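Example 3.2
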Amino acid sequence: MRLRLLTIALCSIGLALDAQAAEVSVFPAAAKGRGKRAPRKQAKGFQAKLIAALTEAGHTTKLVGGKKLLKQAARCRGKRTKACLKKAAAKVGGHVVITHVSKVKRKVYVSVHVVSDGKHMGVAGGKLGSGVAAKAVALLPKVVPPEPEPEPEPEPEPEPEAAPAGEAAAAAEAAPTTEAAPAEAAPAEAAPAADTAPAVAAAPAGKSKTVPYVLIGVGAAITAGGYGTFGTKAADLHKQLEAGIEKGPLYDQTSQEFLRNRQLADVVGITGIAVAAYGVYRLVAD
């Protein structure tokens, strides 16, 4: 029995340790290349995706700083890449993620190295946007959610004790007298409410006369603007025609412009008069 209890306790401790989110130290993504060839924007974008994937998986992230350390991790290449990255990760400790982003023939490639407690767990690589972040998260230890503790069973409520027969009969006789009092007081309380109801309903709702005045003003402005602009221009053109312009292209053009301005003046003026008339109607009707 004791051995069984000890085994259960050890299993629960192991699950609790696995359930704790691992803290992952993330090196800033190193963009390999010279000058404009280095894919710096792509490196920043992938770093944000990687941190989001780690957070979604339940890990806590911490960005690694230090110029010397970052340069050491960025310069790791060739056959000695794993050994070089182990040295850089050993200075941080724990779970470490180091990312290299390179550009080859206008295509961006990403390689994510995962080092856990000084051991190179693997590398997730591929083209940018091919799910490299999810592959890198899979190389880290999974976070197992803790099992919920069983809720304690509610204690049974004690049954109420039965009252003696004499007390129950006395309570039954006293019940009608106590309930009758509020029923008698109800009509007296309802009377003031009935008196105040007509006073509230009798208050008429006043109508605003702002809209009719606005319509009259807008109609007058439209009429004045139409006749003042197009009407004045039509009058000037009519004077030119009466002055004796010789018939020809200039005469035809002037007459057409005169007719067009006169029609526009009439249309705008009639529209303004209609709006103002509607405003007067509203003012009289209200």
